[in-house]
């Protein structure tokens, strides 16, 4: 039951902090609050002074219950609370006694609110902490835009009824509407677009499938680094096209009956053929009316070819949205204890890919070799020798520290550290594998001090057969 308290008198007995919280919630629900207590804490007294609530300045009197709809006992005196409950009971008035399920005839639920849409959770007063825990989980899953959706449906309720008088047909209409572009547009903050899509849906006579694509950044691997919005979109997906780089833990968060399709690129495989296949799959599933999630490692717009995929969708008139992710450089730096910028050592940071497009070398090495900046190299494991040689040739100090982060943020994370001069040897000695991210610059030195995740950083000397490597000594 949800009570309409708008302009109805509700009595709160008690004038302390607990009463204040109840008063605030009741005022938010539109109730006319009467507070009964000999003394009030300042915040409540202020509300009385403002004329916002009424004050009965005395000890509890059962006559206070005569003209109220509901009563809340919020004193710290058990005897008073009991007296309030008993007086309410004999008048057949609903009463809530704070923190006392036995005495209460009404429980106040934990709530998730999105505008006029409310989800209430109750354990019958028995396990309020569990209800609160569930509430937090729901908070993360229900998008803020649901409030606006509820408002739109409220305003349009009569029109929808008239358009589909038959309840069965109306239900089908709602199912299509809620799976379609209206909620998605609202989620993107496009109220006008949602309104147009609604008008279109209302005008339709036969169901027209309206698929869409969400380009989502899955982050570097640790599922805790997925965004809330990413999680919500995964919860609604019909089809998920994911890269190989996306961790199993993240995929496990997707809707159970979503179809998972791995479209990963193998190292050395034909990337352009794979990319064309991805484009074809995106268009095919969206055209079939599916809610498609294109899930990429890290952020979709950082070395992820996300832009190309959106261009294809745009050209085909398919609806899309983009959910950013935590990119590998940001995540690996955090999990290796390396601040990417530093007031003294690095005024800028660059995200660089060590791979050229067609084997050429489009990289501006002289610019990268400049001091006082941090370089984050993606896809670098195989090109380390070139990175070292070019940077040193263009003047970067051979002593510049590096931190090479393998499987960053994942359970198997390893960090290998050293100086630029010995970068390729150190990586080889520890057999560093993809995915790995190279951070180069003064800031990388702090990996040895500030590491907090996974095993301590490894140096060249720590390699199993370091003694056998001539340059290790
Ligand atoms: N869009 C992705 C990058 C794709 S390119 C992002 O924003 O992170 C792939 C490269 O990213 C890998 O070769 C590696 O250099 C880096 N990378 C991705 N995930 C990583 C991880 N968990 N640990 C280390 N490097 C990672």
Automatic annotation (TrEMBL):
Keyword hit for S-adenosyl-L-methionine: yes
Origin superkingdom: Bacteria
Catalytic activity annotation: precorrin-2 + NAD(+) = sirohydrochlorin + NADH + 2 H(+)
GO biological process, one term: siroheme biosynthetic process
Residue span(s) of domain Sirohaem synthase dimerisation: 145-202
Tetrapyrrole methylase domain location: 213-423
Residues forming the catalytic site: 243 (proton acceptor), 265 (proton donor)
Gene3D superfamilies with a match to the protein in the record: Cobalt-precorrin-4 Transmethylase, Domain 1, Methyltransferase, Cobalt-precorrin-4 Transmethylase, Domain 2, NAD(P)-binding Rossmann-like Domain, Sirohaem synthase, dimerisation domain, Siroheme synthase, domain 2
GO MF, one example: sirohydrochlorin ferrochelatase activity
Keyword terms, alphabetized: Cobalamin biosynthesis, Lyase, Methyltransferase, Multifunctional enzyme, NAD, Oxidoreductase, Porphyrin biosynthesis, S-adenosyl-L-methionine, Transferase
This protein's pathway: Porphyrin-containing compound metabolism; siroheme biosynthesis; sirohydrochlorin from precorrin-2: step 1/1; Porphyrin-containing compound metabolism; siroheme biosynthesis; precorrin-2 from uroporphyrinogen III: step 1/1; Cofactor biosynthesis; adenosylcobalamin biosynthesis; precorrin-2 from uroporphyrinogen III: step 1/1
Domain Siroheme synthase central: 114-140
InterPro entries: 4pyrrol_Mease, 4pyrrol_Methylase_sf, 4pyrrole_Mease_sub1, 4pyrrole_Mease_sub2, CobA/CysG_C, NAD(P)-bd_dom_sf, Siro_Cobalamin_biosynth, Sirohaem_synt_dimer_dom_sf
Entry's family note: Belongs to the precorrin methyltransferase family.
Name used for this protein in its record: Uncharacterized protein
Organism: Marilutibacter maris
Organismal lineage: Bacteria, Pseudomonadati, Pseudomonadota, Gammaproteobacteria, Lysobacterales
């Amino acid at each position: 039951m949800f009570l309409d308290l708008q302009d109805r008198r509700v009595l709160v007995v008690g004038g302390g902090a607990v009463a204040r919280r109840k008063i605030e919630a009741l005022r938010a629900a539109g109730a006319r609050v009467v507070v009964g207590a000999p003394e009030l804490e300042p915040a409540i007294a202020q509300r009385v002074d403002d004329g916002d609530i009424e004050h009965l300045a005395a000890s509890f009197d059962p006559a206070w219950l005569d003209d109220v709809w509901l009563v809340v006992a919020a004193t710290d005196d058990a005897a008073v609370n009991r007296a309030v409950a008993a007086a309410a009971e004999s008048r057949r008035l609903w009463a809530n006694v704070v923190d006392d399920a036995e005495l209460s005839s009404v429980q106040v639920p934990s709530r998730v609110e999105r505008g006029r849409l409310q989800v209430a959770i109750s354990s019958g007063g028995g396990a309020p902490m569990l209800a609160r825990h569930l509430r937090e989980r729901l908070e993360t899953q229900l998008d803020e835009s649901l409030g606006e959706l509820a408002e739109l449906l409220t305003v349009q309720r009569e029109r929808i009824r008239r358009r589909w008088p038959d309840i069965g047909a109306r239900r089908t209409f709602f199912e299509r509407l809620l799976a379609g572009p209206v909620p998605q547009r609202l989620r993107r903050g496009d109220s006008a677009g949602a309104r147009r899509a609604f008008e279109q849906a209302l005008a339709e006579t036969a169901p027209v499938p309206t698929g869409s694509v969400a380009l989502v950044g899955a982050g570097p691997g640790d599922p805790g680094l997925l965004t809330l919005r990413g999680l919500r979109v995964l919860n609604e997906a019909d089809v998920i096209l994911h890269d190989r780089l996306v961790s199993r833990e993240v995929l496990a968060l997707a809707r159970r009956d979503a179809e998972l399709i791995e479209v990963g690129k193998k190292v050395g495989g034909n990337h352009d053929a794979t990319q064309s296949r991805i484009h074809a799959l995106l268009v095919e599933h969206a055209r079939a009316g599916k809610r498609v999630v294109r899930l990429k490692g890290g952020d979709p717009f950082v070395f992820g070819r996300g832009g190309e995929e959106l261009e294809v969708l745009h050209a085909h008139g398919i609806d899309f949205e983009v959910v950013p992710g935590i990119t590998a450089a940001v995540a690996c730096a955090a999990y290796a204890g390396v601040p990417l910028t530093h007031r003294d050592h690095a005024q800028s940071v660059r995200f660089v890919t060590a791979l050229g497009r067609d084997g050429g070398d489009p990289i501006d090495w002289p610019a990268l070799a400049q001091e006082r900046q941090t370089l984050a190299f993606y896809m670098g494991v195989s090109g380390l020798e070139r990175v070292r040689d070019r940077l040193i040739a263009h003047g970067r100090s051979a002593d510049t520290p590096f931190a090479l982060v393998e499987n960053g943020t994942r359970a198997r994370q390893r960090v290998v550290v050293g100086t630029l001069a010995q970068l390729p040897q150190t990586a080889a000695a520890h057999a560093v594998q993809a995915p790995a991210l190279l951070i180069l610059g003064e800031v990388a030195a702090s990996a040895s001090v500030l590491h907090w995740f996974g095993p301590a950083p490894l140096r060249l000397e720590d390699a199993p057969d370091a003694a056998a490597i001539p340059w290790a000594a």
